[in-house]
Amino acid sequence: MDIRIGISGWLYPPWRKIFYPADLPQKKELAYASRQVSSIEINGSFYHYQKPESYQRWHSETPNDFVFSVKGPQYITHIRRLRDIEMPLANFFASGVLYLDHKLGSFLWQFPPSFLYNEERLETFFKLLPRTFSEAAKLSDKSDRFSPEYPAALRKQSRELRHAIEIRHHSFENPFFIELVRKYNVAIVFADTAGKWPYIEDVTADFLYLRLHGDEEIYKSGYDIETLNWWADRIKIWSKGKLPKDALNIVDLPVEKRQRDVYVYFDNDIKVRAPEDAQTLMRLLKVKKPQEI
Asked: What is the CATH number of the domain that holds 107?
């Protein structure tokens, strides 16, 4: 059981001289941030394909026991809206993500508020998603944009790849969606969005994925110590394979009592609250910084 707490992205000018030391060069911001929190979401991959050299550099700049999550391209979720996506998926996995190797935690697939629940499209998408490094490497070979040169050691890995889905339309608040994601071991993101979008706490995979965007004002408001203690208590329960008594579930079904890894990311970055909130929650849960492990 592993609890990872961190931030969504790291390249934010307002963080300089506040979270980042005043004399820290920009090129060293990832190295610094990855030693203050235990995980970071790579969100640049949402806007455009990253380069293989970038993933290799990010791997080399971070501690050995550090973990990234990678946000899937909006081209797949927002523009194609899951239509005809086999080649875009091949291009994404060929862009270098596998170079993160053992530092690759989960993939995050975020859908726009205008995307309604569509079982056929979602199931087709889930079937296309690679579930191991070797499956991802085979898919990347179909790319018409990149020529991946993944080493044999990565290509042969049977290590599992994890996927989480963040939804933003109330049509997903139905038992058919819960049944579908459980079938494919895809985690529903527990997304705190200050009440703007749906919040679901159904446990649907062998890990959990939380995104805390702000509890009063999305992307802006920080979390007070009382609220962070509330989240800490909840995370302890989930990580032990149990459910909070007041869990906000769509489906009232028993969950297998097994320890689960938990990924938690603060995305309330506008007022430089994300790093502070992440570090506070780490202390409450006794999650060590990577260099201390």
From this structure: 3.20.20.410
